[in-house]
């Protein structure tokens, strides 16, 4: 009878050596190129004249608002009037920034003078849409334009408004004639806004076109909101605010850099407590009579626009 072959067993020393051997290193995958990474807006107010985002950026969410455009040619009487008014206003409030217009001899952003400029009369607050809500909202705006006809509107005076968060104050042209028609347009969008759980426009709106803005002082006890870089949208978030008699901060005062989270310095932008009462009074006294004239302050409302992200859609009023 043959004996079976002996099965070789490893020694205990060999087993311990195998158990203590380090696992093989995992190969590290190469990093993605920057061009392949999703582009997230940088919340840096230093790049946007100190403006603050009042709603944090959310991936897949689009800021939107509906407005009536007013295109100004450089040769128009209203455009020339606004340049004069802005020059006077900036002499009274030096930290003022223009919206929709700029002084031809000193463009605020260094850009070349444009052939036309556009002012906006907002019909909604800033609205925030998910990707799948964009087409539905555009259909609601388009449907609204099919139910209303072209009409005449006019500006009645210079005024001041602040945004809801009181981070900026605006110099505005307030609507006189055409207010009822603008209210009807805005009210038509209420069901669409409610269906996507967004705030409707103000119950007693002051329709206006913003022409300039300035940063407001923030109370130390009030936490700073996230940054907001859309001047068009911020111009539409306006409500009245009682103004004080405080004088504006002088831009000639030394600017103290702020220290960022990475040790970098951030410029501190001039702020003001409020517009001085003399600002609007002076503008209405100097230019109010011309502003309300038919040749200057009257215009036709024949188009409504909706801006969603960077996309602008336009429809004529054909009701």
Automatic annotation (TrEMBL):
Q: Which domain of life is it from?
A: Eukaryota
Write out the GO MF terms: 3'-5'-RNA exonuclease activity; lyase activity
* Classification lineage: Eukaryota, Fungi, Dikarya, Basidiomycota, Agaricomycotina
Q: Which organism is it from?
A: Sparassis crispa
Q: Where is the composition biased (Low complexity)?
A: 227-258
| Name of protein | U6 snRNA phosphodiesterase 1
Quick one: a GO cellular component term? nucleus
Q: Which UniProt keywords apply?
A: Hydrolase, Lyase, Nuclease, Nucleus
Write out the ranges of the annotated region (Disordered): 1-28, 224-267
Q: Does the keyword Nucleus apply?
A: yes
Q: Which Pfam families match?
A: HVSL
Q: Which GO terms describe its biological process?
A: U6 snRNA 3'-end processing
Q: Which Gene3D superfamilies match?
A: Cyclic phosphodiesterase
């Amino acid at each position: 009878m043959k004996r079976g072959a002996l099965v070789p067993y490893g020694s205990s020393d060999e087993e311990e050596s195998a158990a203590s051997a380090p696992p093989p290193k995992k190969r590290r995958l190469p990093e993605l190129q920057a061009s392949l990474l999703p582009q997230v807006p940088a919340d840096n107010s230093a790049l946007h004249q100190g403006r603050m985002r009042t709603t944090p950026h959310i991936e897949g969410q689009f800021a939107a608002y509906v407005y009536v455009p007013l295109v100004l040619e450089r040769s128009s009487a209203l455009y020339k009037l606004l340049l004069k008014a802005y020059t006077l206003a900036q002499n009274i409030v030096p930290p003022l920034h223009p919206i929709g217009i700029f002084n031809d001899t000193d463009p605020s952003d260094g850009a070349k003078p444009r052939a036309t400029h556009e002012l906006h009369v907002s019909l909604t607050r800033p609205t925030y849409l998910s990707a799948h809500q964009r087409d539905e909202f555009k259909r609601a705006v388009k449907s609204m334009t099919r139910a209303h006809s072209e009409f005449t509107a006019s500006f009645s005076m210079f005024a001041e408004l602040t945004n809801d968060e009181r981070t900026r104050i605006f110099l505005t042209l307030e609507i006189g004639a055409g207010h009822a028609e603008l209210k009807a347009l805005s009210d038509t969008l209420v069901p669409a806004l409610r269906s996507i759980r967004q705030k409707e426009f103000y119950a007693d709106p002051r329709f206006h076109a913003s022409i300039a803005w300035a940063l407001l002082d923030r109370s130390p006890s009030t936490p700073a909101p996230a940054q907001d870089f859309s001047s068009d949208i911020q111009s539409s978030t306006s409500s009245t605010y009682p103004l004080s008699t405080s004088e504006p901060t002088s831009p000639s005062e030394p600017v103290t850099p702020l220290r960022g989270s990475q040790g970098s310095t951030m410029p501190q932008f001039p702020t003001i407590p409020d517009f001085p009462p003399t600002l609007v009074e002076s503008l209405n006294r100097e230019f109010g009579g011309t502003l309300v004239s038919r040749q200057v302050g009257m215009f036709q409302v024949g188009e409504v626009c909706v801006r969603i992200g960077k996309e602008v859609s336009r429809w004529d009023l054909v009701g």
